[in-house]
Write a structure and sequence with these properties.
The protein is of the alpha/beta class. The protein has 22 helices and 11 strands. Strand 10 and strand 11 form a beta hairpin.
Length: 639
Amino acid sequence: MMDDRTGKKAVRVCGAIFFTLLLVLFLSVQFEFYYDLNDDTMIKDILSGAYTGNPSGFCIQMLYPLGWCIALFYKAIPTIPWYGLFLCLCQFGVVFLVAVRLLGVTRNFRTGLMAVAAEAVLMLGLFLRELVIIQYSVTAGICMTGAVFLFVTAPKTDKPSVFFKRNLIPLLLVVLAFLIRNEVCVMLLPFLLLAGLAKWSGEEKIFTSANFKKYMMLIVTALLCMAAVYSLDMLAYRGTEWSSFRGFFDARTKLYDFYGLPPYEDNREFYESIGLSQESYTLLENYNFALDDSIDTWRLEAIVAYQEEMARQHVDVGTGLEDTFGFVSKNSVGEAVWLYKNQLFRDLQVIALLVSGRTAHLPDDFSSRSVISIAVIAAYVIYFCVCFLPAEGKMRLAAGLKITGILIVRCVIWLYLYMVDRLPDRITIPLLLMELVLIAGFGICDMVPRHKDRTAFRAARVLFYILCVVTALIAFDGNRQDVASEYQSRAEADERWNAMMDYCRKNGNNYYIIDVYSSTSYHGAPYSEKIFSGKSLFVDNTYKNFDVCGGWAVKSPLTRQKLARKGLKDIQGALCGARQDSRTKTYFIAGLDKDLGWLVQYYDKRRITVEVKRVDQIRTPSSAAAFDVYELKRKGAGI
């Protein structure tokens, strides 16, 4: 017979399942799920086999053990969007686990229902876009925030074995986040360490052998698990080709994402010293570097080393890099502090405008990230009023130290992001979500009825829940309109991108190379794909006989496999007629009326005279011109 405790737990789990399914059903009816960027679709293509023709776990961005597992599912049933389903499962799984915990920490069903409702409207009001337009870095951040919340709100116990068991799910979520996007996991780890320090210092007796065993067992297990999966990843990529590509990938990331490309004319002597011509430099500028095999790891690392050396000598090479005690970045510490201060003042200004009702005066760059930033500031204020002020003695000191710790960690991370000038939403939104969730977790643990009048306290708590719900509903209305507007823009972009893919499929014997800047977005809306094909679970993951002329997968063993499938050795030779298989014709796809003078000049530099001739035009079902298709006719070649 089921005891009362087990029965209550079953009720909580069933309630959380019902809540999560209701949320998923609502989103499925109201919205369609998208991969956010072409980075996500590239990972999907590699895992599913659409890139090379065979599912592969070498998806480069995620760690290999996870990629290998997902690729196995694609090998079993290729037409199911396993990668998209996995990301959805991670995000809504965290929502479910948080709901179970909220129902567990509340004292009665009514309060639990209000807490779960607050979770729903906060997720919809603040993170609606992230729930339906999915980006794997954000998914990793959601897993980390779920781990922190579950860890902070876990019931206390003195037994190390029970403590480890209660925190096993948070540990697994941390490892999962590390597998999905290890950079995001590492960025958010300081918050997890702060949560552990706060929880340990909140024990009745801090320095005991039991406490040492509890926390060190959890920390060591997490580190060992992360080390194990990272070692498996390193082992999988240990081959000569992959090792070489990983070096190229790291240098390319540092160059484009952190340093920038120095102008050619101002640094001509250096570029000539490493054998990089003006024409090859242009390929680096427009990201079409897949054309040139001479753009290799050594040259990219040389450019990076040159920039670092010039920054240390305080010589400006055109990218404005700064050296701070050996750390090279785009902004100095002082500049980062100034930018960070401006961000905080802008958020406070927006709050003042919203409170005064002058919404017409909101800044032009007001976005969902601004709404989340405001919600974080509001969370600090609520914690201060509900947890810090009513507390006394050690409890007030503990609350003050917790909030101070969060502020210190957030300031250090934000200053670093401003120094390297890397603040895309896929990085900042997980950071803001973590901050919001950690404050909420501390608030749930510290918000106990210290008032003498418990009725007044309960009334204040109900008012707090109502305030959260009303605020989130207002934010949801604006967020829903923003998402609807983005959907419309994505639909216009999709029409063109799908027309291009259909054109390539219809001409399956050919191979198509796409200009990078023509393949990223249309009027600001990124070219991407829906996770699910309409109302069907099945999607088309057949081999794609096209590739972009640059990007993070270019020059990898996968790219060589993709070319070899069509009997091609390299892109440069394939475009100008040098092909191993005469049945395969290679064409270049670019945006409408794109100037391809750089392409002619590149071949001229190699004593190959080509004529770029438009041979076709890709049109959408509504007959709108989308892309031009070019053929490169070789007129002659020098020695």
